Automatic annotation (TrEMBL):
This is ABC transporter substrate-binding protein. It is a lipid-anchor. The keyword Transcription regulation does not apply. Residues 1-27 form the signal peptide. PROSITE patterns: PROKAR_LIPOPROTEIN, SBP_BACTERIAL_5. Belongs to the bacterial solute-binding protein 5 family. InterPro entries: Peptide/Ni-bd (IPR030678), SBP_5 (IPR039424), SBP_5_CS (IPR023765), SBP_5_dom (IPR000914). It is found in: Cell membrane. Pfam families: SBP_bac_5.
Length: 556
């Protein structure tokens, strides 16, 4: 189980923007497409002019709701609505969208953004700094619209001139400022006419600056047409279809049968069920974008003992978890929590023992024995007459996580740690973790294209994902220094120290690197991101869609 960045809210953000004050790459082809002129009619057949994206599993679209301030609406971020910049999850690249460049000043508390000239809204009105200021002030007025908690770090927004905006932060916080740069911008001349709470409107006819505009809508599918006046040039993909599916199985079948050009659902036996059907055109790539953790409640008398946490870690067969629960597509995590894509952040002097996690049941038993534990008559470790008895919480229906939890319980029992699994609904599990009313839990971590947010979520007592309750004033100070660092060298220097803390203190136990699911077919379109050309997070949904679609071209 993994969740697309847009669903993770404030946790799913980047740190790459810390390298500030420089111009960033343009996020689109500047080519004007030679695609056939769009008539505005929604296509009804699969062709080289219509690209199909595997859509939601919800039966049907219940309403024509394209409100970018509501997480439950039909997603238009990246397609119709754009932010100032976007930081990619896979390769740490900062894409310049409505903003051209930005710079930090006054001790990383002031962020000044220079806007792109010549941008027009899809209704022909000019885009200016007033639209940017309005977009931020409206989510301040209606906090429910502030999906990423922007005003938790923002103090004020000031229009300097028609193409310059100045953001003043409440405190130095370079990584969190990505929420500012990635906030979708809406047209003031449209949204200023909305009466009352902006989260209550459907926004059925969205007007944006993005590469696409709304085409036809039905409960079964939404069509988007290429924006002929897009600032980056009209996209070569003239039309995008996003159908909706009744079940996961129906969605997977559509991918396997070639009805979908771009999918984002893990396919069991993908080599046989998908690739082998058309090896020349059917492809997949599952890059890692976050961690799967075994969270540990450090207020629990047993689990606050580091020796017990080390024993638990040593007892877990992660290779088995990867192969059996995730079909080998989610590799074993690292002791530091760094992902495969974040190797450039790894401390070159890191001890060898901190580079890889080791499966060693014998070491687990040695750790507990050295800590004063002995096996009782039932074969389980106990101390002072109290047996270790742990419950692993997981979300019911998240089948891979449920399987991981069951396998860990068996691993622990095999070394003499009594453990069982408890499943619950996501909301209740999340509440239990936030209230520290659990022992162990299998869940995803904070994530982003740099390590800051993983460490902040895990080690910061003020984080919304501080499920384990880790408390260390020195570590908190390091996170504050990281937040104020505006250079990559400065960030890495602090990251090295945090890596050692995570590897040695085991605030929670890394299990696997979570994958971003992605299948694609090159029969009709080329230019897809791949392992050899990882220019964007390839899983459908969110800002990446606009970036990827403007890189694709129909096969002639």
């Amino acid at each position: 189980m993994t969740m697309k960045r847009a669903l993770l809210g404030i946790g799913a953000v980047a740190v790459a923007l810390g390298v500030a004050g420089c111009s960033t790459a343009v996020a689109n082809n500047s080519s004007t497409s030679s695609a056939t002129a769009n008539t505005g009619a929604a296509s009804t057949t699969t062709s080289n002019s219509v690209l199909t994206i595997g859509g939601a599993i919800q039966g049907s679209y219940t309403s024509k709701n394209f409100n970018p301030f509501v997480s439950t609406s039909i997603d238009t971020k990246g397609l119709i609505y754009e932010p100032l910049f976007y930081v990619d999850m896979v390769n740490n690249k900062t894409w310049s969208l409505l903003g051209e460049k930005y710079a930090w000043s006054k001790g990383s508390t002031v962020l000044t953004v220079q806007l792109r000239h010549g941008v027009k809204w899809s209704d022909g009105k000019p885009f200016t700094a007033n639209d940017v200021a309005f977009s931020f002030n409206i989510i301040k007025k209606y906090p429910a619209a502030d999906q990423n908690g922007v005003w938790g770090i923002l103090k004020s927004v000031q229009v300097v001139n028609p193409y310059t905006v100045r953001f003043t932060l409440q405190r130095p916080d370079v990584p969190d400022a990505v929420h500012i740069l990635e906030q979708p911008i809406v047209p003031q001349h449209i949204w200023s006419k909305v009466k009352g709470d902006v989260t209550k409107t459907l926004n059925s006819n969205p007007v944006g600056t993005g590469p696409y505009v709304l085409g036809q809508f039905s409960p079964q599918a939404v069509f988007f047409r290429a924006n002929p006046n897009y600032w980056g040039g009209k996209p070569a993909v003239s039309e995008v279809k996003v159908p909706v599916y009744s079940t996961n199985e129906v969605g997977i079948m559509a991918i396997e049968q070639g009805e979908v050009d771009w999918g984002g659902t893990p396919i069991p036996g993908i080599q046989k069920q998908f690739v082998s059907r058309d090896p020349a055109h059917n492809h997949y790539w599952y890059p890692t974008t976050s961690n799967v953790l075994l969270y540990t409640n450090l207020s629990d008398p047993t689990l606050k003992d580091l020796a017990v946490r080390k024993a638990i870690s040593a007892a877990i067969n992660r290779e088995q978890l990867s192969m059996l629960a995730e079909n080998g597509f989610e590799p074993v995590a690292t002791p530091t929590g760094l992902l495969s894509s974040q190797k450039s952040f790894q401390d070159p002097s890191l001890p060898k023992s901190d580079n890889a996690l080791t499966f060693s049941p014998s070491q687990a038993e040695k750790d507990l024995t050295a800590d004063g534990y002995k096996k009782d008559g039932s074969g389980f470790f106990a101390k002072d007459g109290k047996e270790i008895n742990l419950t692993i919480t997981t979300v019911a229906g998240w089948t891979d996580y449920d399987q991981i939890a069951s396998m860990i319980a068996q691993n622990l029992k095999s070394v003499g740690i009594n453990a069982s699994v408890q499943e619950g609904q996501y909301n209740s599990v999340s509440s239990e973790l936030s209230a520290h009313k659990y022992q162990l839990a299998v869940l995803f971590s904070n994530s982003g294209p740099g390590p800051y947010f993983f460490y902040d979520g895990l080690l910061n007592p003020s984080s919304s994902m501080d499920y384990e309750g880790y408390q260390n004033s020195s570590t908190t100070a390091l996170l504050q220094q990281y937040a104020a660092a505006t250079t990559m060298a400065g960030q890495k220097k602090i990251a090295y120290k945090l890596e050692s803390i995570v590897a040695n203190d085991l605030p929670s136990i890394p299990l696997l690197q979570a994958a971003s699911w992605y299948e694609y077919n090159t029969t009709r379109f080329t230019g897809w991101p791949s392992q050899t050309n990882p220019y964007a997070d390839p899983m459908p949904g969110g800002m990446d869609e606009g970036i990827i679609l403007t890189h694709l071209k129909p096969v002639k």
